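Objective 1b: paired records.
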Amino acid sequence: MFTYQTTDRKEARRFRMAQFNGRTATIRSAGATVTGRVRAIVESKSGATAAWVVTIVPDEPKAAAPAARPAPRLCFAAEDDF
């Protein structure tokens, strides 16, 4: 699990909406990017400003899809020769 603290109300609201709708959320912090499901958002009122602690469960990276077969090449001008 990945824990992130923010003081931005808009960002906290975005994470709450992602949690409510079951969507993945992405956090970019200190050069690292974490994408996953939001597990919890807790408001911390210990300081002078409001802060939120967001807990994210990272998604496993997706495996690369196998290469698709190339489409057959059709020559429409050849139909006139028959």
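Objective 1b, second protein:
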Amino acid sequence: MDLDDAGRPIRYLVRDRDGKYPALIDTILADAGIETVLTGVQSPG
């Protein structure tokens, strides 16, 4: 199933701030019209 098959556009992707996500991912998503929203910073407990 493709995301287009859902019948609704994807507007946001919520993800954490892990370094495994390169900046290129955000660029690709922005080109597709998807805004990346980062989660809050977690303080050490």
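Residues 23-31 form the longest helix (9 residues). Residues 19 and 25 are 12 Å apart (CA to CA).
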